[in-house]
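Support reply, case 0932

Customer input (verbatim):
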Amino acid sequence: MPTMSSSQRSQWPVWLCWLAMVLDGFDLVVLGTVIPTLIKTGELGFDAVGATFAATISLVGVGLGALFIAPLSDRFGRRKLLIACVAGFSLFTIAVAFAPNVAVFSVFRLLAGLGLGACLPAALAYMNDYAPAGSAGKSTTRTMTGYHVGAVATSSLAILVIPNWRLMFIIGGLAGIALLPFLWSKLPESLPEAARPAEGTSEKPATGVVRPAATAPKTEFRDLLRKPYPLVAVGIGIASFMGLLLVYGLNTWLPQIMAAAGYSVSTGLTLLLVLNVGAVAGLVLAGILADRHGTKKIVLLWFGLSAVFLAVLSVKIQNEFLLNAAVFVTGVFVFSSQVLVYAWVSQLFPANLRGSALGFAAGVGRLGAILGPAVTGTLVAANIVYPAGFYVFAAAGVLAVLALLVVPHRVRAEKETVPAGER
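Our regenerated output:
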């Protein structure tokens, strides 16, 4: 079979999937950057209730997209779905800027979320189809660094353009539209006939090309309910739920939690930045270690250490250096724990079911993304967020460890390759 060296492999798919994740990072923080202005001015009829509804409905859209649209990549191909999702997200994001009221604003955010929610699983599935054997950890974590880069870039953009909130959505939408021609022309879609492994062999396709859906049995989302996948799906789903509960809960409320602990507001904002810097470092480290020592070992270790360091933060640290160091290390483990779940999903499920499995993990995780800020907000309202908030977060890390312990290191290959109609 023809092979392709690493020097011959195109870097376009790597960068394009990374840029798709930058759009996800944009969506993570854009609403947070414009809501204070919208509430302060009352524009479009916004108040605290309207802002909460818009934020919630946005996450609902992302979750629905991950659960019900992402699995279509297994049927129609990663490339087509990724292009369609970026196009839909971009157009509806621009539409948000021209919404006449809170209701329409929220509907456009919901529709944009549908495309974006499917974008992440499709991009990760594509990268794991494309990546060389034994590099799923690095491929997934490297791609997901775009998520945090997008969040940082959007926060920086907001400093420049706010209070012109409409421009935030226009720029974000135009960025996605600018990406479309490159996705269309530079993403390979199928494995050349001559490069396909002989029938009945388990040889991996040549790197740099992607196996078309037609070479694998057609799958449906309900295949996740058939042996041997249900137990795997439950464990992964719980871990993903807890992982995104931590990501969104901390990103939303860390400054407020630290303020409740007696730290200054400026210290809380600085610690949020430190937390996300730690996230990028953690992604790089986690991918290397997962490929070297096995993803299950590292994801269990990462969630376990997340729980430990979140519990440590419940103790007030007077020394500024030690406080920043503790938050940095917490960021190293918390954010990359969730990404390691995605990496493990890519390894546990066969290629023809990978998009559905990643969509399930991301979709269930988005429920945690909704619940995390809500639970922490309730603790804030009750004036018990410190130290109770950190105890809740630490408990989430422990529950993720317990859920992943029941998931096998791998699913038996012979069961993976049985077509749905023959099970």
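We compared this against your earlier run and they match. Two observations from our side: Residues 222-422 form a domain with the Growth Hormone; Chain: A; fold (CATH 1.20.1250.20). Residues 29 and 282 are 20 Å apart (CA to CA). Please reopen the case if you see a mismatch on your end.
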